[in-house]
């Protein structure tokens, strides 16, 4: 508003100057220019304020439209994510929408997230294929569940990453239909954190510090088709084959899952019954 008021004041000044020098040819006005006339200080202030509002509305940058996106997924964009600095210290909150706009990510906006890996009794990893309705990375294969803790008291709690683990329990039920009593926070092993950034398209992207959570258990599944297009259990060999297919562009894998698979995953997978030695809660791995 301040800039707009100054712009209008310049117009008033120019207009007054033109009246005093009526014999001087005037430049053509900009398309948004409207002369401001006033007879007193009070009326001049009202006129300037009104013109400033008009100017603001005229030059406002276009907003990101979500009209073409899935209605349910758009509703989720109003959720409040946890804003953090590069050392995973809480600095505030913002909407899921704002956190995933590339224009904000390019300015450094960073939020907290998690990635869950569930293995069954045969030590096969549960994968999901994200639904085509998803706003970021639709149709891509990824790990069991990937989402965000919300800016709520229960999910902000940081001791032993309990808030993140509660958020994971909530989303495993929402996406995969796993009964919450089958995926309690106490059964999840928090391994470490990774920091990555990736664009989904020209508008949307990800910039997260991602908590890695492991769990081995047979669970009941009833996926939400708005969240998940398909799901499957894979062996190490089958996943390696999928990764090769992704390199040949025969299928798509989310960037965070690809990064984890190329660095830590198979080492952790080989040690499902001895994960404590791989826990690293002090460092954030920059990917």
Structure in words:
It contains ten helices and ten strands. With 287 residues, the protein is of the alpha+beta class. The model is unreliable at 1-38 and 51-62 (pLDDT under 50). Helix content is 34%, strand content 22%. Helix 1 packs across helix 2 (41-59). The longest helix is centred in the N-terminal third of the chain and has 19 residues, at 2-20.
Number of helices: 10
Secondary-structure element order, N to C? HHHEEHHEEEEHHEEEHHHE
Strand order of the largest sheet: 6-3-8-7-10
Q: What radius of gyration results from the CA coordinates?
A: 26 Å
Estimate the strand proportion.
Answer: 15-25%
Main sheet: strands, sense, barrel? 5 strands, mixed
The total beta strand count reads: 10
Low-confidence stretches: 1-38, 51-62
Q: How far is it from the N-terminal to the C-terminal residue, by CA? A: 41 Å
The 3D shape can be described as globular
Average pLDDT taken over every residue: 84
Q: Could you estimate the helical fraction of the residues in percent?
A: 25-40%
Class by alpha and beta content: alpha+beta
